[in-house]
Amino acid sequence: MARAYEMGSRTAAMQRTRESILDAAEELFEPAWYDEVTLADVARRADVSQQTIVNHFGSKTELYLAGLAERFVPRVLALRAAAQPGDVGSVVDAVLNDYEHTGDGTIRTLALAGRMPELAGIAEGGRAAHAAFVEQNLGPLVPERRGLGRVQRLRLLAVALDVRTWHQLRREHGLGIRDTRAHLVTMVEALLAG
């Protein structure tokens, strides 16, 4: 019985260490570029050795990918869960809330995907998830009309609500959240109206 308790304690300690490493990585990677953060930085923040990080994750890239999969993606899904299918305002609000929390990091990840093949799959998965979100939440409002087809209209809606559109409005043009929301709603409603 003591052996089982010892193994359970060891497993729990390993899980706590892993979570501590992920916490540290998230704190460091969120405001910075991938190449600005070293394993030594993460080790210091987590109060572990670099070898401990390697033992748990294998490499800096694997740590980064684990952080995206286990922390970043669930946060995005939670933020977007507030969207009400068919309600343009709530869909725009959910996307805007997501980007206000994760947009800058997403822009950095997309920029890195062109230089890091291991991130290409993450970027593609994000695009597919965004397209599915748009179809699920705005698809019922897309009219079947001649001219611009349903697929093209959904694609344009995904572009209108893309993180790069948010980035251009918020960061490049310096619009506030209220004006950014108004621009996004205008684009979405225009596309839905045909």
Automatic annotation (TrEMBL):
Residues 38-57 bind DNA. Keywords: DNA-binding, Transcription, Transcription regulation. Residues 15-75 form the HTH tetR-type domain. InterPro entries: Homeodomain-like_sf (IPR009057), HTH-type_TetR-like_transc_reg (IPR050109), HTH_TetR (IPR001647). Coiled coil: none annotated. Gene3D superfamilies: Tetracycline Repressor, domain 2. It holds the Pfam family TetR_N. PANTHER family: HTH-TYPE TRANSCRIPTIONAL REGULATOR BETI (PTHR30055:SF234), HTH-TYPE TRANSCRIPTIONAL REGULATOR RUTR (PTHR30055). This is HTH tetR-type domain-containing protein.
